[in-house]
Amino acid sequence: MTDTAKKDKAAAFGPVGKALNEIDDRLGIAKGGRGLMDKIFPDHWSFMLGEIALYSFVILLATGVFLTLYYVPSQDIVVYAGKYAPLRGQHVSAAYASSIDLTFSVRAGLLMRQMHHWACDIFVGAIVVHMARVFFTGAFRKPRELNYSIGIILLILAIGNGFIGYSLPDDLVSGTGLRIAFSITESVPLVGSYLAFFLFGGNFPGTAVIPRFFTIHVLLIPLIILGLVTAHLVLLVRQKHTQFPGKGRTEKNVVGAPMVPVFAAKATGFLFMVTGVTALLGGLAQINPIWQFGPYDAAKISYAVQPDWYMGFLDGALRIWPAWEWTGFGHTIPLEVFLPAAVLPGIIFGLCFAWPAIERHHTKDSEAHNLLDRPRDRPKRTAAGATMLAFLGMLFIASSTDVLANTFHISLNAVLWGMRVLVILIPVITYPITLKICQELQQVPDGGKRKRSNVVTRTAEGAYLAVPAEQRPGDGHAELDAEPVPSFISDGAAEPDEPGVHQVSR
Amino acid sequence: MTADHGTPVSLSTAGLDDPHMQPLAKNPERAERWIALSMFVGLLGIIGFGVAYWYDADPWVYGLTLGAGVTLLGFGITAWGKYLMPKGPFVEERHDLRGTDEERELFAAAVVQRGGGILGRRKLLAGMAGLSLAAFGVVAAFPLIRSLGPLPKKTLDTTNWRKGSYLVDQTGREVHVDDLAVGGIVTVFPKGYQDSPEGQAVDQTVLIRIATTDFTTRPGRESWGPAGYVAYSKLCTHLGCPVGLYEQQLEQLVCPCHQSMFDVTNGCEPNFGPAPRPLPQLPIYVDGRGYIRAQSAYSEPVGPGFWERS
Known about the structure:
The structure holds two protein chains of two kinds. Chain A contains 17 helices and eight strands.
């Protein structure tokens, strides 16, 4: 067949076909393009958690660009003369003044700023939950260890850029956070004061940290995140997605919906839904009201101030760590800062990075896996993950010792010592309890099958009876099987050939 | 729908009349109407956002119109994909990621022979290139790191307090011995530094009146608390937050960041929380006209610990 003849075949599809021919002549997209459109994506609700993170990042980029058009990254002192009356005539930094102005004087500015902040909290949250899904189902195993590591780096970058971002308005709360960041940097043995001076351009507060953090926040880290997200997705396509076991699913295939049109439609719709929910939050739920906090003043402070949720575990560790400062040989190591703020997160993330190797060493399993585990079938892994989550959760709770003491009228002393005990105790008992739950779940007869429910009814005489419900679609199916069509979608047309499906006419 | 529901087929072999190619909704027309309704309400919301913007509405109107509009649009598109497009499931084979044994051997040979071989044959060139690259890395780090800020030197050990410095509040007013009653507290700075951000960050000091007569917080500090006034650095020794809460009846200073507590009557010794050291005390005196002034600078570095602190 000649070139012309081939062209004629595709040209039957009209002007689009002709255009595709022209592009294929130059870029050779036809073969790979069709393959990509036919690419199969497995379907499970837990696979959309990573999508939430991706779409939050898109929202962060879009709203962030809007904010950069009005924000002034400078610590120069200006006299505020904008719309917000209580602040008029006060000496504030240009960063704070511009943040207030973009909130009150720019149309939809508050919406954009709050959407940006909410999207960040959702971004980090979605990454954490996505990572938990990957961990508990064993998706990190060979051949996906590299992509798992990229994910952890993305989590660390997201947390870091979140902290840097909420420091930029230069308000009283975030300024105190910067002071703490300076002190933590200072605590590094040997080079700490040098690192702190280089980061802040001199002693705290200096004049360099806001402009520098701005560049890091809007350019450096987003570029790295963008690159790593791209790598994350390219590896996902190259290695193909994992899937849960079920009918017709093996280690050697992928069962699901094609990229175009099904997955593309669902994903596009979901992008809009995530955006819409973020907009609802940004418009209806106040977050980070910097005009109430006031401008940063190094000699002032506010009460009951917690950082954004993803910094909570660090703040909690700093609160409950004992006052162990080491001095000797003419030097000081502030261990009460360095251990909880630098060594502890190092150990936590180090364990995350090392887990695939730890598990491989422990199980002697060096095979590639494309089918996911149910968490109960890997009791030790599940228990280890639950222990880590319990530890982080207790540290998070410890970041509000003062609020807990005030709310429940307990002495602060009791709360502090209680948290010091619980942060060890709860994880220690979480492990055996989770292990036991997993082992018992494995023993359940018909485990993993959908069961018929019982309906409790009351007779006219007042007696209660538990009656097995009518058969519902999916009763008796393995939970991980593809879900049969629920009858409420049908309009009552009888489908007698589907076993176990009871048609409800409506 | 067929009895073997759930058995996946390959997309390329499924004909248009295959059950897998049918939509999930059994009444597609009805599903289409609902989805169209969702998108239509979404469209109203999106137009509403435009109207809200035109009239510069309240933030909640922006959030409600844009949020509801885009969410419903997205819901419609997703439902379209789920209920009206081919329901599948479809199957695709995974291909081995690894190459064949022969491909692997050829690749390894090429890497080892071309890469290793070339470097091994010209050891001098490889060494020179490696040395130059290492030197470039080190030299490039100088401007990248060293230009960022001044060396700390003794900056962290000192403050702007000098012998004779007046204690002034944030407006620059000098504090007089008659200004505070017992239980009173004021944040003070050395005169001349109350407006500078650096001065405020480092020099901030709390002046508390805890008695009417001279007060000694520790042996050796007999002259430091004239007329019941004591002055301590306001920088927490834990992480440098301002120790901004004064518990008057217990005579404790509390740091709101991480709840360290300092006993004002006992040299601000920490008696609770993570702070490792007492707040340094500033020796003060009352001059002939009744103004409170510093006897000297702080005798130790203020604020949190660092390596060079002795």
